């Protein structure tokens, strides 16, 4: 390579790095790009672009093509991030890259229909044509040995990031606080997408050798006053009557009047990432305290497993059952759920084709199966902890989803009516089959509902905590905003308080309970 060509390559690389610095921050809308990135972010961004350039150089042996391809690679990630943000109000994070197998198995859950597949195929064809045209114009600048050396260096750098995270984390220390303590929109808007992806992975790898965050207080020893604890996580459930959506929820309205706690539930997601809510509910570890595991807690479930309420109750002799009528591999639940302390996982294989309502297993069928589990545990005189994660109301909504109902809002209302029926059925079963039991019902996240995009700005759902059973008495009603971790803390406090002499339903409620829930949310 002569001097003039070398200077041209350096000039192009400088333009590439400068362009990447601007492009990197386009992964979120303008309003999220508030703070100036630290110097470490600029340096890491340059390293990432250099690595991409070296990768494409090793593959093509053409330095100018490699620069364009590196920018194009970043642009693809930025585009994916913007598309994700348009739907979920959250940019791409490093753990999203682990969803590729799930995306291929369930493209419908990611809004990837035939039109999207056709568009993607066309884009691949056009891109292939552009690559062929460029490489036919720009001559090869490297021999085979030099190409192999470039690719070897690419692998060496990648291995260093993957296998030596502790040392790199020290160098990237200025990036840790934004990544750990600010929302994804903020740290991606500040640091840039490529920097956030790489640094997030480094800190996640580094934290793998550290103890996980502690949960709430453990379950007290001794016989429990409750014979069952049932947690119903209802897919996309939010009481949108406050938004003017006509909903018929008689069971929710009736049970709220006797609930020991109910109100708005502040969740960490909108439109997706169900497992974030369920993990916070199970462990009592607030979303903000889960560090880089918070975006996909099932990527490394053993980190939060010691704090799991299911694990604690299983160790105390309870039956522990997890029910999710869908592919157990989704979010890697098949590996995560046993680690969290559940002895049994009831998946979609336990349901018949006729149990579906729309694309997924219906909530009424789920309720029938839960009643069977309550009855079996009662007959065996064993306490039961069961968590159900429903699926019926999962989006997308639109024509073809439900026979005779084309309007998305009407479809959603029908699904919520079934969720309400599920709530009523399970509550009635607990009243009939247990002397004292606890029932938790809540929505995992607000729905992506056409015509109601404003839900992305107020993502809180709804919850209630109710004591059931033939010895249950009317509770002092408490209405308050809570978090899934707060409900976990409430359950643990009820398990402890139920062993003490008390009035009413046998548990202290009201001001003390509300105070405890608020303190849990603030942690």
TrEMBL record:
Membrane topology: Multi-pass membrane protein
Keyword Heme found: no
Organism: Starkeya nomas
Classification via InterPro entries: Alkaline_phosphatase_core_sf, OpgB/LTA_synthase_biosynth, Sulfatase_N
One Gene Ontology term, aspect cellular component: plasma membrane
Stretches assigned to the Sulfatase N-terminal domain: 229-459
Localization (cell): Cell membrane
Protein name: Sulfatase N-terminal domain-containing protein
Region of interest called Disordered, as start-end residue ranges on this chain: 501-523
The keyword Transmembrane is assigned to this record: yes
Composition-biased stretches (Polar residues): 512-523
Pfam families the UniProt entry points to: Sulfatase
TM helices/strands, residue ranges: 39-57, 64-83, 109-134, 141-163, 183-204
Lineage start: Bacteria, Pseudomonadati, Pseudomonadota, Alphaproteobacteria, Hyphomicrobiales
């Amino acid at each position: 390579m002569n001097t003039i060509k070398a200077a041209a390559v350096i000039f192009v690389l400088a333009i590439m790095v400068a362009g990447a610095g601007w492009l990197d921050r386009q992964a979120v809308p303008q309003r999220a790009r508030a703070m100036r990135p630290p110097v470490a972010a600029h340096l890491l961004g340059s390293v990432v672009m250099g690595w991409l350039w070296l990768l494409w150089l090793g593959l093509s042996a053409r330095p100018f093509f490699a620069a364009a391809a590196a920018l194009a690679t970043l642009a693809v990630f930025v585009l994916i991030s913007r598309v994700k943000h348009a739907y979920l109000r959250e940019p791409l994070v490093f753990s999203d890259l682990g969803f590729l197998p799930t995306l291929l198995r369930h493209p419908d859950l990611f809004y990837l229909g035939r039109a999207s597949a056709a568009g993607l195929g066309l884009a691949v064809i056009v891109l292939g044509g552009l690559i062929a045209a460029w490489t036919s114009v720009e001559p090869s600048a490297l021999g085979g040995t030099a190409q192999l050396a470039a690719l070897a260096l690419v692998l060496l750098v990648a291995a260093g990031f993957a296998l030596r995270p502790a040392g790199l984390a020290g160098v990237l220390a200025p990036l840790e606080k934004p990544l750990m303590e600010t929302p994804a929109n903020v740290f991606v808007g500040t640091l840039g997408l490529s920097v956030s992806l790489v640094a997030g992975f480094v800190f996640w790898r580094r934290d793998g050798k550290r103890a996980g965050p502690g949960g709430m207080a453990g379950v007290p020893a001794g016989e429990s006053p409750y014979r069952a604890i049932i947690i119903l996580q209802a897919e996309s459930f939010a009481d949108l009557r406050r938004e003017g959506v006509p909903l018929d929820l008689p069971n929710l309205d009736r049970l709220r009047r006797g609930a020991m706690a109910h109100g708005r539930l502040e969740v960490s997601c909108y439109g997706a990432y169900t497992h974030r809510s369920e993990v916070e509910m199970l462990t009592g570890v607030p979303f903000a305290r889960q560090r880089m595991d918070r975006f996909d807690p099932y990527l490394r479930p053993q980190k939060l497993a010691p704090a799991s309420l299911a694990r604690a109750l299983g160790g105390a002799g309870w039956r522990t059952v997890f029910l999710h009528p869908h592919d157990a591999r989704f979010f890697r639940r098949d590996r995560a759920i046993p680690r969290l302390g559940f002895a049994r996982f009831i998946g979609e294989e336990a349901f018949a084709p006729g149990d579906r309502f729309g694309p997924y297993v219906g909530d009424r069928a789920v309720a029938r199966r839960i009643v069977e589990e309550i009855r079996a545990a009662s007959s065996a005189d064993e306490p039961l902890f069961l968590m159900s994660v429903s699926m019926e109301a999962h989006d997308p909504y639109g024509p073809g989803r439900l026979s005779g109902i084309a309007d998305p809002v009407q479809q959603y209302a029908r699904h919520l009516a079934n969720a309400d029926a599920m709530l009523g059925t399970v509550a009635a079963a607990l009243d009939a089959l247990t002397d004292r039991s606890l029932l938790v019902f809540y929505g995992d996240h607000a729905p992506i509902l056409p015509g109601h995009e404003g839900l992305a700005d107020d993502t809180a759902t709804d919850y209630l905590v109710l004591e059931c059973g033939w010895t249950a008495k009317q509770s002092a009603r408490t209405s308050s905003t809570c978090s899934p971790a707060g409900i976990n803390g409430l359950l643990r406090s009820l398990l402890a308080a139920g062993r003490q002499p008390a009035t009413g339903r046998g548990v202290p409620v009201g001001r003390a309970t509300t105070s405890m829930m608020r303190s849990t949310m603030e942690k």
